[in-house]
Amino acid sequence: MSKTKTHASNEGAAGRLLLKRSDLLPMSAPAFRAASLRNHLALVALRQGFGHAETADDLLKTVYLTYFICGVDADEGSLETCVAAELTIKASVAHAKMTGEWTLKSEHAHYVEKMLCQHDAQLTTLALRTLDAAARRLSQVFEDGGMPNLALTYMRVLKQRCESTKRVVPA
């Protein structure tokens, strides 16, 4: 993903950052293929029992990135896909800590696969600046010592949506 540096010569008259053309375009095809391949190979490794902590960590980071790209305003299906993938990977990590086997049960792998397909679509359609903003947000969460909990976050989103629809009174 591209990094846009803020320079005085790169700012407009109003002090806003001027974006480069590449920031407004989706990821390049070679960069997309490399990112997608890395993610899908991590899933294959876990499915076949050849995973390890780094594999699971990479997949979790992809889940969080996908969720942050979606944003809380995304449709419920997209958010649920991310939550299901997170819970699946976390269950795999818990299993590995108990047994030493880094694997992902085949009956649950489809949740991660669906999330990876969603992420692939994001990478091929969204502007790099959108992807970079989500990556920066995720980095900040990790720097602050936190670990996202998408299930809890999703429950809050659903509660807020429910409350906001109750407030709207039809005319």
Description:
The protein has 171 residues and is mainly alpha-helical. It has one domain. The protein is built from 7 helices and no strands. The protein has helices spanning 21-24, 29-47, 53-70, 76-99, 106-125, 128-143, 150-167. α2 crosses α3 (53-70), α3 (53-70) packs antiparallel against α4 (76-99) and α3 crosses α6 (128-143). Mean pLDDT is 85; it is low at 1-11.
* Envelope shape: globular
Number of domains: 1
Helix content: 55-70%
Helix and strand run: HHHHHHH
Distance between the termini: 47 Å
Largest sheet: none
Indicate the proportion of strand residues. under 5%
Query: What class would the helix/strand composition place it in?
Result: mainly alpha
Number of helices: 7
Uncertain runs: 1-11
What's the assembly state of these chains?
single chain
Write the layout of secondary structure elements.
Elements: H1 21-24, H2 29-47, H3 53-70, H4 76-99, H5 106-125, H6 128-143, H7 150-167
Helix pairs in contact: 2-3, 2-5, 3-4, 3-5, 3-6, 4-5, 4-7
Key attributes of the depicted protein:
70% helix, disordered N terminus, mainly alpha, 7 helices, 0% strand, 171 residues, single chain
Give the gist of this structure.
Helix content is 70%, strand content 0%.
